[in-house]
Amino acid sequence: MTAKQFFKSQAFKCIAVLLSILLVCGVLLTVCNSLFYVSAEERRARAISKIYGETVTPYEKPIDNEILVVSAQVLEVYTINDEEEDNKYKDDYLLKVKGKGGYGGGSVTCWIRLTAEDGGAVVKKIVIDSNVGQSYITKVTSGALGKLIGKQENDDFTSFDIDGIKTGASFSMGAISNAANAALTYVNAQLGLFGKYYGYQYNDYLDDATTVTVNGTTVEYSIVTKGEIYGKFNITIHVAPVDGVKKITEYKITDYGSSVMPDKNYNDLMSEQTDNLNGKTLEDIRGYISEDSEVLHTGATISNKHCYYAAAFALANYDKVLTENAQGGNAQ
Amino acid sequence: MKNKYAKITLDGLIFNNPTFMLVLGTCPTLGLISSASSAAGMGLTVVVILTLSNILISAMRKIIPNAVRIPAYIVIIATLVTLARMVLEKLVPDLYDSLGGFLALIVVNCIILGRAEAFANKHNVLESAVDGLANGFGFTCALTVMGIVCEFLGNGSIFGLKIMEFTIGIFATPAGSFIIYGLSIALFTYIMDVFMRSRRVKENRLARENLLDKNPDGGKEVAAKEV
Lengths: 332, 227
What we know:
- The complex is a heterodimer.
- In chain A, about 35% of the residues lie in helices and about 25% in strands.
- Chain A is α+β, with helices and mostly antiparallel strands.
- In chain A, strands 1-2-3-4-5 form a five-stranded antiparallel β-sheet. Chain A has a four-stranded antiparallel β-sheet with strand order 6-7-8-9, covered by helices on one side.
- In chain A, helix 7 runs antiparallel to helix 8.
- Chain A is elongated, with a radius of gyration of 28 Å.
- Chain B has nine helices and two strands; from the N terminus they run αααααααββαα.
- Chain B has one domain (about 1-200).
- In chain B, helix 3 crosses helix 4 and helix 3 runs parallel beside helix 6.
- By secondary structure, chain B is an all-alpha fold.
């Protein structure tokens, strides 16, 4: 076939027509994309206008990554109309939270408006921003989202027990529920209403400066106790499974909170075991801090309590910390 | 001439209704009729895309070679759907959110490709536009009616407006939509059957009367011959 024959052939006509259509469509879509592009700012403005129903000015706040949230990730935090003198939204927090645990491991990102009230933060409005892999998200109606309004952190809700809600999209609703719980935890922690270790066992004497890191199967706690009456203890505790049993593999008091006592050496008054709880299990510690135990009552009861409760906290929450770490929450 | 457009319109809306008579576009039908507003929104989006695709394909029917017509139609339809997505996301974000993944699936909607193949590539632009509008509105009406029934039974509301507290959960799911879809097809077919039968009876009676008017003794002659 010569070049002339090829250009006159039906095959060439087919290719030329298809390419022409593709070219025209491509150009058209490019132009329209630039015209109809929805920027992140526009999305945010839409969500905020849907939540407040009026024009408000959001002020972005830095995210406190130290606050642990479960099965969700706090993406953005705003307060409203900060510079207005008569600000009716002065107690409001607006959070963009990615709730995990949706269908097929997907997620739902929501805008959540919360208000700080006496008993803690309260959910006021939820608007869905986007989702990953949630094909039934349209079944989560405003009525379903309305069931979350008025909830507080200590309501301890999940998607499966919110007033018998049935959406047909339980997994997506679960991700939204996770986002709402995370937003409540975050705001409560910010408000100082609940410690950042709210929901953990044996957190009675724990300061929010405490940090937790996961290193393989070992959970490393750098515990700071509350400075009740005297100073704060700094304690390093490592917990790991030894022969299938969770034990303390390192317990070291790096800073004695009560050492400033002028008339007595409190280190001497503390329980002998307190300095080295290596190898102890949760059952051992529970025995030490039980009501009928005399171990704490050495004349340095409060110091003992702080140190034993730190050990109990480390052992009792080992699984929870590992789970949160696996779920990819803010807990790291 | 006027009769031709009336026929195209009635075919699309009723006699060849894409949802009830041709059972096309079943995927978005089952996925979206649990909410009346989503169903109506999907229907109206299809109206626009179907009409535009019919117009474009009809206008280009003499340019597009027969061998590559299907890929060409798909490219055109996909472009229109993408455009519709962009416009909806920008201008009607609530509808865009409520349609979810089904919006992108309009590309493979049998009604649109079906009308392009069956009608638009054989008729002129105006006829194709009317066909697109008629079929689109036929689809919209069917979806909206079923959406109202499903939402009422499944959520106790109509277009989001709460009517009653009593609900039957299954009708908020695709399984319930399937039941409503089946019952709607049965009811529509029954009504069409009754209508067509009565129309046939009427036509036969008119034909007989016309025959008798032309030949008043015809009946007696026939009777005499039979004897």
